[in-house]
Design goal:
The chain is an all-alpha fold and about 200 residues long. About 60% of the residues lie in helices and about 5% in strands. Helix 4 packs across helix 5.
Length: about 200
């Protein structure tokens, strides 16, 4: 009867394993006996978070932007509630070449803006019909950023031409442009790719 021998322990960054015997050779192996060290545990945690972000980050971006648009749109249905009402009406007056409020009452104009924002928000929240949602979003973002040019004197009337609260309200919308660009990449099937999966030897 052959004598059973133990091979050297084979290090593994996973969890403690178990002994098993090869049927043909009768050699008993001992694998996966090295427990996770602190660095390996941190890397395993980072990898798990990374996988979660790869899967859900764009979805979270779309839903959060949809919620913001829907809530801000709802506020515009109620006169005097939205802090952007005066700025929106002044911008609409310029973009419509004076039709608002000369021909179209201000209340109607605000209702139309509110409906546009709510529609964008609902489409983003639902994740359906993203192509028309992106088109509407592009038009809406052009409108909300236009005061930086059309009403520059009003937005940068702070000390030393620093932006006022209205100016800061408009300038922060450049973030929405970047978010819209990311969401737009998904319309034709774009998705995040993990460079480490394609290049596993990369450090």
């Amino acid at each position: 009867m052959p004598t059973k021998t133990y091979l050297d322990e084979i290090a593994s960054p996973v969890y403690p394993g178990e002994l098993f015997e090869e049927a043909q050779t009768g050699v008993i192996r001992r694998e996966n006996q090295v427990a996770l060290g602190p660095r390996a545990m941190v890397e395993a945690g980072e990898a798990a978070i990374h996988r979660w972000l790869m899967r859900y980050s764009i979805i979270a971006l779309r839903i959060s932007m949809g919620a913001v648009y829907f809530v801000f749109g709802i506020l515009k249905y109620f006169p005097g509630v939205s802090p952007a009402q005066d700025l929106a009406l002044a911008t609409t007056h310029l973009l419509s070449f004076g039709l608002v409020p000369a021909v179209i009452p201000s209340g109607v104009a605000m209702a139309l803006i509110a409906t546009l924002e709510c529609a964008i928000g609902l489409l983003l929240l639902a994740g359906r019909w993203l192509r028309p949602a992106i088109c509407l979003l592009g038009a809406q973002l052009t409108g909300i950023l236009s005061p930086a040019v059309l009403l520059a004197g009003r937005l940068f009337a702070g000390p030393h031409h620093m932006p006022t609260l209205e100016g800061q309200y408009v300038l922060k919308d450049v973030i929405l442009v970047a978010v819209a660009m990311v969401i737009a990449t998904t319309v034709r099937g774009g998705a995040l790719t993990d460079v480490y999966e394609r290049c596993p030897t990369r450090k």
